[in-house]
Amino acid sequence: MPIAAEDLLGTWSLVTWDIQYSDQRPVTYPYGADAQGMLIYAPDQHLSVVICSAGRPRLTTESVRKAPVEQKVGAFETYFSYAGRWELRDDAIVHRLSYALNPNFIGTDQVRQLLLEGDRLTLSTTDEVKGVSRLHRLVWKRTGTPSRIRLGL
Description:
eight-stranded antiparallel beta barrel, 6% helix, 153 residues, globular
């Protein structure tokens, strides 16, 4: 049965983000096995995603602008975010990005395969790096009660 847009509405908490490799190397976790994150699908079809490594160190300055370059790089490397609009397409969801920490993501469509099992949502995608196929799997757990707000489609 296809996933209805109403089934996705609300806030989701990251359980895990892992990457599996076609060359059988061990699974990796881009932000650590204990990464944290939040995904929000709004009824007006906007979305927001933030993911970060757990236990990120604080900066030694009050302002990020005054922090040492190494600390800024560390903050960037341990944090991931984007926002934009979403739409369902068969068994996939398309994230159309308007904003992103990584400027190269702005204006792109990020297509994710969907699997919804109870209060767990798995978003997955594949890419290839140096001839090795990688499967990214992000597992999210619904926080709170599912929203039953009707979309104005």
